[in-house]
Amino acid sequence: MTAIKKTAAQSFIETNVDFDKTVKINGGETPFSPTPMKGVERMMFERRGDEVAIRATSIVRYAPESYFEPHMHPGGEEFITLEGTFQDEYGDYPKGYYVRNPVRGTHRPFSDDGCEIFVKLAQLPPEENQEQVIIDMNTAEWKADGEKATKLHLWKSEYEHTDIFRFEAGYEAETTLFDDVAEYFVVNGVANVNGADYPERSWLRFAKGTPITLKTASGATVYRKIGKGFARTSL
Q1: What is the pLDDT of residues 166-197, one digit of tens each?
Q2: ChrR-like cupin domain: from which residue to which, for each copy (predicted)?
Q3: Distance in angstroms between the alpha carbons of the first and the last residue of the chain
Q4: Which burial class, exposed, middle or buried, applies to 150 when counting CB atoms under 10 A from its CB (0-12, 13-18, 19+)?
Q5: Are 66 and 40 in contact (CB under 8 A)?
Q6: Global pTM value
């Protein structure tokens, strides 16, 4: 593999980490920023910490033949491969894979041909299953979830309830209020949430008790997490 030079590490920041505030980020409005490794960039939606994040939700983009040096995830890692194939020494994770890597897990991520992942760092509790969880959403059994919708359950614990939905064109849900924060990520298509259109790569997090109405004119695939996950203030 070709040697790749490093760039500067992330300085300490806190952005969008107040769960009492609703955050709406339209797909494409947040630029990618460099990581310490050339060819790897991230689009940050929420982050607390420096290069080793106390909490982070981002899209990370790997150019062909780019990589990160071996590292540990003190608070675990959750990701969906959006494009291409994400890789590490344990396997390949093509587009449509959902993966949870355990707390204090280590790996050396890379991508031979380039990829994009939606990734959440340091949001798993210490007691969660210490084995890697892999779901191939391309071949998994999605279940009907009312008219014009199917759902695939991804994870449930006292800290979160996480699913992904496929909505057909013309889908419209009744207004819903959740008793915890509600996070949405538009994987593809365009979702209309509370009257505004959000294209793919949009990220939204609603404060507890916010009325939410979701519909789509043309169809969409949407990741939804109810709950904060395990909210750390330090590692």
Answers
A1: 999 999 999 999 999 999 999 999 999 999 99
A2: 26-124
A3: 32
A4: middle
A5: yes
A6: 0.94
The DSSP symbol for 196 reads: E
**Domains of the chain (ranges plus CATH)?**
30-136 (2.60.120.10), 143-227 (2.60.120.10)
The tokens of 180 are what? 């915890």
Residues 100, 78 contacting (CB under 8 angstroms): yes
Long-range contacts of 168-171 (CB under 8 A, 24+ apart): 168/216, 168/219, 169/216, 169/217, 169/218, 169/219, 170/216, 170/217, 171/147, 171/214, 171/215, 171/216, 171/219
Per-residue pLDDT tens digits for 82-97:
999 999 999 999 999 9
Gap between the Cα atoms of 31 and 39, Å rounded? 15
**What is the spatial distance between Cα 75 and Cα 126, in angstroms, rounded to a whole number?**
7
Bridge partner residues of 166 (DSSP): 150, 221
Cα distances (angstroms) measured from residue 191 to each of 31, 45, 62, 81, 219: 21, 18, 26, 20, 7
CA atoms within a 13 Å half-sphere pointing along the CA-CB vector of 44: 19
